[in-house]
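Let us work through a complete example step by step.
Step 1: write down the sequence.
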Amino acid sequence: MLHQTIPLSERSREWLEWVLVTSVPLRRLDGADAPVGVASSCLIDYAGRRFLLSVQHAVDRGSTDWVVDLGYERGKGTAIYRPKSFNYVAEIVRGSGVIRDIDFCFTEVPNDLVSIYQNATPRGISDERPRHVFQTDLSATPDDKQVFAFAGQVKPEMHGTSALATEMNVYPGLRFLRTEGEFHVFEIPVPHPGHEQFQGCSGAPIVDMNRQVIALVCNGDPATNTIRGVSIARYKFAVDFMCRGANGA
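Step 2: predict the structure and record it as tokens.
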């Protein structure tokens, strides 16, 4: 579903169709492998390796029960990938020695890992295509002349004991307002619908019309009609550190 009320140019329409496949769904499974939580993420290729990025408040520190939804395979069910572990980031508050957690996490995944977007209805599956993998140097920052968007699976509902249904939404028309610490703040073009309407979008990539990933969705504020996304460029050093460590540098 595209949350847009104004006529679209062909470029804008193509961009929004692309935004639809930028967000990779995550599922939290219980001991019986039944889904009990949802979140979002994105895949990036960086330094010759593939990483999955998300946010810490969704994927709890030390979690081992989150999986990547790779898409439904006919006759088999939903394919998943289980990350071994996530890496988390913290900062020392200057002058206090206090360690503060940052709402960002990531893990390395196989270079050929791909998630498939599918428009699934009771009548079958349509519009099947690979979800986007960003080719990035992790340096993109928001331009206040740009328009931004994000997508995510929301309104999770359980059907039976193991079937999870969600609604895929695209939220376009975001305008960059300012940066506050590690967060970029964006104004949304309609009244904030409330946190429950965005449940499942945490960790979704916020992208610009140049198809760059800028931030990951963290939270919103209905009073100011804004959402906040954690800056990816600010924490490039954490991914670099992992790459150097794995290469023995």
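Step 3: interpret the result. The first strand starts at residue 24 and ends at 29.
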